[in-house]
Amino acid sequence: MIEFRHVTFAYDSAHPVLEDISFQIEEGESVGLIGANGAGKSTVMKLILGLLFPQSGEVLVNGIPVSKDTLADVRRTCGFVLQNSDNQMFMPTVKEDLLFGPVNYGLSREEAEAKADAVLEQLQIEDLKERYNHRLSGGEKRMAAIAAVLAMEPKAVLMDEPTSALDPYNRRQIIGVIKEMPVTRVITSHDLDMILDTCSRVLLIGNGKIQADGSADDILRNKELLESSRLELPLCLQR
Ligand SMILES: Nc1ncnc2c1ncn2[C@@H]1O[C@H](COP(=O)(O)OP(=O)(O)OP(=O)(O)O)[C@@H](O)[C@H]1O
Ligand SMILES: [Mg+2]
Question: 2-88+157-237 in CATH: which number?
Fold first, then answer.
């Protein structure tokens, strides 16, 4: 579903962020992308979405190389919640944002409304429906952005720090939703308890490379490995 082939990327050519990275994510997998601040996690997300392009190597989504010509396909395949979801909503209200994608992809307004209501109920944020996006709190915006992604029913979902602005109740809500999603998931977070709970596989990035790629259970219990990348065991494993 998502493949990196020898990808090298630098914002500034003297300091590559990613050096010759290769991995493959199969359909239906849930993969946690972890690493210290500045390791390159958000950069990987942006390369998948074609918000950035590699200096060398290739990124493929659903077998299609990500390029300017294939962006529409890629964005239809991958729903995403960026780390800074503040700027992600572009309609005035939550409801209009939820309807925009599905209507654009061919649902009738009635069908789209039913879909939007179902998603709001699933996330238990019905009270946000008529609210203005620019007046939402940080966590409310995050919940609304996640709702908009779910309403699109994409084949893959990329979430960059989905729980970072959320209170414990909404965090638990999102964890439940992520676990139930039958689609390919790539999730970055410093909330390693959430990664342990939602992901079966983990990619650990550091120093421009994949430092580890394996089962979430193995990697998230490996104290030495985590500490060598400036991370720590999930809280639930620290006692
Ligand atoms: N637009 C940019 N221009 C120049 N450098 C950038 C830009 N965006 C990110 N970087 C640098 O690239 C590196 C990787 O950044 P990235 O945002 O991918 O890290 P991250 O793993 O997502 O970190 P965090 O955990 O803090 O979200 C960092 O050193 C960062 O300073
Ligand atoms: Mg980031």
Answer: 3.40.50.300
Taking the C-alpha atoms of residue 239 and residue 235, their distance in angstroms, rounded to an integer, is 8
Parse the chain into domains and list their residue ranges: 2-88+157-237
pLDDT tens, 87-121?
677 889 999 999 998 998 899 999 999 999 999 99
Q: Which residues of 125-141 are buried (b: 16+ CB within 10 A; e: fewer)?
A: beebeebebeebeeebb
Atom of ligand 1 nearest to the CA of 45: 18
Reading the block at residue 129, the tokens are 């429906």
Q: Is the CB of 42 inside a 6 Å radius of any atom of ligand 1?
A: yes
User: Against a cut of 0.90, is the pTM above it?
Assistant: yes
Longest Cα–Cα distance in the chain: 54
Ligand nearest to the CA of 231: 1
